[in-house]
Design goal:
Length: 118
């Protein structure tokens, strides 16, 4: 059963300017594994984290550092959650998170579906 849906859209050039102005955002928003990615990939991951928060219905107990977007061997993006964020997802009965990312024409987007077995 679907328990939440989230979508987010990021203007990549604007996101790049934010990172240039405030380099510490990289440490606050992204895991060490994510930080070396190109700006359009970082923007898509930022959108994914925002979309996850929307799918969860809010940010209570959710921390940016607990959310990493990894790639499966096929290249498909997937959430890797830890800490209190993983606990929030489990407490809400969410068994599966579906994630789709895309970037084109200076925009990055992410779509998240949170699913429960109940």
């Amino acid at each position: 059963m679907i328990v939440g849906i989230g979508v987010d859209l990021v203007d990549v050039p604007r996101f790049e300017r934010s990172i240039e102005r405030t380099p510490r955002l990289l440490e606050r928003l992204f895991s060490p594994a994510e930080r070396g990615l190109k700006p359009h990939s970082l923007a898509a991951r930022y959108a994914a984290k925002e979309a996850l928060i929307k799918a969860l219905g809010g940010s209570d107990g959710v921390h940016w550092a607990d959310i990493e977007i990894a790639s499966e061997p096929s290249g498909r993006p997937a959430f890797s959650l830890s800490g209190s964020t993983a606990a929030v997802v489990a407490a809400r009965g969410i068994s599966t998170l579906h994630l789709s990312l895309s970037h084109d024409a200076g925009l990055a987007t992410a779509y998240v579906i949170a699913e429960s077995t109940a």
